[in-house]
Amino acid sequence: MGEEPIPAGSHAVQCGAVMKSSAAAAAAGMSRVVLVTGANSGIGLALCERLLSHDDQLQLCLACRNGQRAEAARQALLVSHPKAQVSLFQLDVGSVRSVLRAAQEIKQRYNRLDCLYLNAGIMPNPQVDHKAFYKGLFSSKAIHMFTTGEGLLTQKDTVTSDGLQQVFATNLFGHFILVRELEPLLCRPGSSTQVIWTSSSNARRSAFSLDDLQHQQGKEPYSSSKYASDLLSLAFNRHYNSKGLYSSAICPGLVMTNLTYGILPSFFWTLIMPIMWFIRVFTNSFTLTPYNGAEALFWLFKQKPEALDPMAKYHSLTSGLGNNYTQPRKMDVDDSMAEALYKKLLELEDTVRKKLKNEDLECAA
Ligand SMILES: NC(=O)C1=CN([C@@H]2O[C@H](COP(=O)(O)OP(=O)(O)OC[C@H]3O[C@@H](n4cnc5c(N)ncnc54)[C@H](OP(=O)(O)O)[C@@H]3O)[C@@H](O)[C@H]2O)C=CC1
Ligand SMILES: CC(C)CCC[C@@H](C)[C@H]1CC[C@H]2C3=C(CC[C@]12C)[C@@]1(C)CCC(=O)[C@@H](C)[C@@H]1CC3
After folding, report:
1. Subunit comment for this entry (predicted)?
2. Which domains, ranges and CATH numbers included, belong to the chain?
3. What is the 3-state secondary structure (H, E, C) of 118-159?
4. Is the interface score ipTM higher than 0.90?
5. pLDDT digits (tens, 9 = 90+) for 14-71
6. Which helix (H) or strand (E) holds 43?
């Protein structure tokens, strides 16, 4: 099933309680604290630029695995926003130990977090199914294929030091643990806060299985992990809305970043770039630049979280004339599946924590 646009103004969530949103925090003169994972390049870095251009009083935290690249990103942000408060945290979302350590440091440094962007993501060793591409090109599903990449891409996954599938660990599980660890900063009485997932229109129900959460059996771990993040966003809303935490998922569209440049050789992208700009006239999901791709992430930051629809994915779109806008589309998710995933993630969290504890004990002995 594809994602259907939702008519403007219809919101599945109606929240009676009046809470202090992060926008209200800004109005009250408090500088908002925003943390972005995977902020040193692509969509994450463009988002940081846009956030600081909107409000240079923000306390912006870049949580990145590579210290040098993170520092370069910080310097780049300070060039355009010299007075901005930009701090760095070392975080490898693919490692549970790293997530626990980073969360600890964040809790020591801040007593609040207004917005947490779960943006870091990988698509390792992508392979394009050329046959499927040419077949799709001359079918009625050509636009759908260009919008979602459905059926075109497979990836070769690896296993992390925690014994987890790398794509699952990075795109989903590490972020799950991060939210759980940062709960005291995110759930504050009387305040409303946001968790925002960079998902994808490549997320597909048929690529995901509750019996194979980590996608050990299949060849589309990326699609599976993004579908799982849509489910988890819904589950977070069910479990945390009463504590003031609201979760949303977005799709940035097709954006030219390190991730997409990894799919085909760069000379090939250069060759087909004019075609990509041409396709953009027909499909507004070809946002192409990180700035455009960050549109929905930025738009959500300016919304009242209580008014957002937990069943919607917010898409960054760019018109043929280059105008950016955000459109909510209904996700192909349901509560029972989201709840089942949430339960399984809690169980896995328990197992991994025990494993790490045992390793620490063995080390100490
Ligand atoms: N580009 C596109 O067309 C689309 C992208 N997306 C999603 O957008 C998000 C951002 O990707 P994009 O900007 O395109 O690609 P980039 O590769 O430019 O950015 C990915 C970011 O994630 C970071 N990252 C990767 N693995 C880890 C890790 N283990 N720990 C911490 N950080 C990590 C990268 O850091 P490092 O530099 O260290 O690798 C980098 O900063 C991803 O979640 C992606 O799935 C969704 C739909 C379309
Ligand atoms: C002549 C070549 C064989 C052309 C191949 C084009 C494909 C590589 C692209 C067509 C649609 C693209 C696409 C993505 C990757 C590159 C394509 C498959 C994504 C899957 C990238 C990551 C995402 O999350 C999606 C939203 C993208 C959807 C479209």
Report:
1. Binds to the short form of prolactin receptor.
2. 17-364 (3.40.50.720)
3. ECCCCCCCEEECHHHHHHHHCCCCHHHHHHHCCCCEEECCCE
4. yes
5. 233 334 555 555 556 678 999 999 999 999 999 999 999 999 999 999 999 999 999 9
6. helix 42-54
Measuring from atom 17 of ligand 2, which residue has the nearest CA?
149
Please report which ligand is nearest the Cα atom of 220. 2
Q: In angstroms, rounded to a whole number, what is the distance separating the alpha carbons of residues 314 and 146? A: 18
Give the separation between CA 117 and CA 136, rounded to whole angstroms: 34
Q: Is residue 86 within 8 Å of 31, Cβ to Cβ?
A: no
62 neighbors 37 (Cβ within 8 angstroms): no
Neighbours of 54 (CB within 10 A): 11
185 contacts 107 by C-beta, under 8 angstroms: yes
CA distance 176 to 107: 16
Measured by CA distance, the residue closest to atom 41 of ligand 1 is: 38
> Which amino acid type is present at position 184?
P
Nearest CA to ligand 2 atom 11: 146
Return the percentage of the chain with pLDDT > 90, whole number.
85
Binding-site residues, ligand 1, Cβ < 6 A: 37-38, 40-44, 64-66, 69, 91-94, 119-122, 170, 198, 200, 251-252, 254-255, 257-260
Report the alpha-carbon distance of residue 276 to residue 259 in Å, rounded.
16
pLDDT per residue over 314-365, tens digit each? 999 999 889 999 999 999 999 999 999 999 999 999 999 999 999 999 988 8
Which H or E run contains 311?
none
- State the ligand closest to the CA atom of 147: 2
Q: What is the pTM of this model?
A: 0.94
- For ligand 1, the distance from its centroid to the CA atom of residue 202, given in whole angstroms, is 14
